[in-house]
């Protein structure tokens, strides 16, 4: 039994090592997606706040989704990561900030 | 006799008798029963974001609006996200550059985008066929961990999407295998940048395509390096996207002039010979999707004419062009599941048009 657990643990670690880049990136997806697509929903497509909150909603919850209407900037936080997107111009729309 | 004269006068009608949109689209007031189309496309929306959720449906026949309907909050003047319909429009912008003699299909992509120098055999035609041979996983929310497109748009690739794609290892020889990749489209966007004077790139989609077509609603977002996200981030209102459809329906002609070489549109509409059939999925042409069947296979959308071609995007976005029926159809949507069928929509539109006046 102990041996089975050990083998499974090693296999899990090997998989995690193999996928280390994807696993490291994963927590950032939720807040980046939400910040970018919410920014475009509001400031490019011109939809209302309530609609855009529903539009970007995923299975995993955000801890923060906030817009600064005057600067047309959006901040999203989830899975311990924070991302911001901002409107760049009439033709340029929104972009994630570095 | 009257009928014969009428037929003669129609065939002899000069080109200026064609309808084209100016600031507004002309309207066709034909009496057509759209109930079966609207029942399908605009079913009541469930609370859980399931089912067919059409935001806009616009049907143009021979340059005139035949039917148009929106779901709030999308309106006639909403620049709606087109997702991967952007790819077809990018190809159309490149068609103008092709007509200006800026590149040949067989040119190595590295000539215009030096980051591809590790892949000297990769040609622009391979990128247009989504056949770069570079490793890619095209999945969105269903497999975010492994998705190259999610990493490109939101994490590792967002600063420079073409550079992110160019750094992928080659898994097959260029031009030998179709593998749908948003990365390939962004390599095209970066190649286009390399063909132009740096100061002209930002304005080029407008100068080359949008302004001549009278498109005023376009927004095209860029990555951190300033390259257009040619794969995904073009926004247009439905009537403006239909202008691109009409240009394609009429083989690249626009009013009295020609915006795209006829051979470019013919390339867009030619099947990529190395494509493999996927049931129900349109076949790849030159950065557009075709209903033309692969050898020995049925047409992907059996109820639509085989000359139907389309630009298709995530969550149900679509621009269909049916040259033999002189139809252009724009559909914007927020489909969050796979219940929508291109064939079913086209079948119902064609049945409605066939029943005109009934």
Automatic annotation (TrEMBL), chain A:
Signal peptide region: 1-24
Entry keywords, A to Z: Signal
Protein name: Amidase
Species this chain originates from: Pseudomonas peradeniyensis
TrEMBL record, chain B:
Domain Beta-lactamase-related, first and last residues per copy: 47-348
GO molecular function annotations of the record: hydrolase activity
UniProt lineage: Bacteria, Pseudomonadati, Pseudomonadota, Gammaproteobacteria, Pseudomonadales
Protein name according to UniProt: Serine hydrolase
Cleaved signal peptide residues: 1-17
Gene3D superfamilies for this protein: DD-peptidase/beta-lactamase superfamily (3.40.710.10)
InterPro entries the record matches: Beta-lactam-related, Beta-lactam/transpept-like, Diverse_Enzym_Activities
Keywords associated with the record: Hydrolase, Signal
Database matches in Pfam families: Beta-lactamase (PF00144)
Organism: Pseudomonas peradeniyensis
């Amino acid at each position: 039994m102990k041996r089975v657990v050990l083998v499974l643990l090693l296999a899990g670690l090997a998989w995690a090592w193999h996928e280390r880049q994807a696993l490291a990136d994963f927590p950032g997806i939720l807040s980046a997606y939400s910040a970018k697509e919410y920014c475009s929903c509001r400031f490019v497509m011109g939809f209302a706040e309530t609609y855009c909150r529903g539009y970007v909603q995923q299975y995993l919850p955000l801890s923060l989704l906030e817009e600064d209407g005057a600067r047309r900037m959006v901040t999203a936080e989830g899975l311990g990561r924070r991302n911001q997107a901002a409107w760049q111009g009439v033709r340029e729309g929104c972009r994630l900030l570095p | 006799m009257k009928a014969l004269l009428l037929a003669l006068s129609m065939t002899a009608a000069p080109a200026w008798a064609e309808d084209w949109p100016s600031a507004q689209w002309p309207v066709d007031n034909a009496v057509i029963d759209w109930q079966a189309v609207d029942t399908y496309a605009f079913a009541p929306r469930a609370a859980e974001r399931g089912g067919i959720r059409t935001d806009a449906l616009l049907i143009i026949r021979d340059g005139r609006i035949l039917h148009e309907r929106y779901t709030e909050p999308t309106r006639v003047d909403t620049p709606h996200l087109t997702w991967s319909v952007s790819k077809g429009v990018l190809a159309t912008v490149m068609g103008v550059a092709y007509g200006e003699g800026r590149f040949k299909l067989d040119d190595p992509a590295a000539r215009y985008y030096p980051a591809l120098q590790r892949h000297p055999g990769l040609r622009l035609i391979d990128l247009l066929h989504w056949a770069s041979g570079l490793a890619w996983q095209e999945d969105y929310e269903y497999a975010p961990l492994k998705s190259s497109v999610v990493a490109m748009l939101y994490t590792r690739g967002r600063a420079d999407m073409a550079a992110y794609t160019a750094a992928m290892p080659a898994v097959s020889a260029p031009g030998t295998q179709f593998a749908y990749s948003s990365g390939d489209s962004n390599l095209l966007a970066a190649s286009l940048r390399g063909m132009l004077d740096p100061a002209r790139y930002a304005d080029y989609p407008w100068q080359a395509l949008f302004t001549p077509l009278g498109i005023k609603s376009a927004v095209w977002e860029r990555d951190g390096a300033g390259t257009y996200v040619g794969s995904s981030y073009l926004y247009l209102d439905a009537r403006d996207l239909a202008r691109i459809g009409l240009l394609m329906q009429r083989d690249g002609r626009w009013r009295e002039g020609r915006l795209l070489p006829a051979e470019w549109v013919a390339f867009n509409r030619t099947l990529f010979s190395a494509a493999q059939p996927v049931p129900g999925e349109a076949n790849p042409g030159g950065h557009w999707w075709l209903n033309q069947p692969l050898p020995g296979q049925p047409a992907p959308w059996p109820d639509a004419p085989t000359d139907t071609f389309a630009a298709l995007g995530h969550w149900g976005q679509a621009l269909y062009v049916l040259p033999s029926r002189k139809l252009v159809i724009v559909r914007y949507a927020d489909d969050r599941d796979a219940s929508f069928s291109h064939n079913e929509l086209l079948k119902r539109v064609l049945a409605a048009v066939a029943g005109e006046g009934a």
